[in-house]
Amino acid sequence: MVTGIISLLLISSGLFPTSELLKLRKLDSDLEGHPTPRLNFVDVATGSLGQGLSVGCGMAYCGKVLDKAPYRTYVLMGDGEAMEGNVWEAMTFAGFYKVWKAKKKSFHCFFFFFF
Description:
Order of helices and strands: HHEHEE
Radius of gyration: 15 Å
Largest sheet: 3 strands, antiparallel
Structural class: alpha+beta
Number of helices: 3
Helix content: 25-40%
Strand content: 15-25%
Number of strands: 3
Strand order of the largest sheet: 1-3-2
């Protein structure tokens, strides 16, 4: 279900033509499942539960501390993922290095903003 929602968002934002929906979940399609780095707007492939926040924290840290860049990093994850141990480690990292700006909980998803 999430893959379909993400695909609809990508199509409605103009990143893919509507005809691509017919290729949803097919191996030769850009909408085969989870977003992958072969798409020019995806930086990291999804994988194990909980890794997204860790990667997001690392990207936010690099942007803030190393690059001194003004960009924001966004992480969207479900409530089941929040129960993974490395998510809590990432939250500790974000708090210690002050890359955490705000968090909102809505519809059993967590949306994290980092500076």
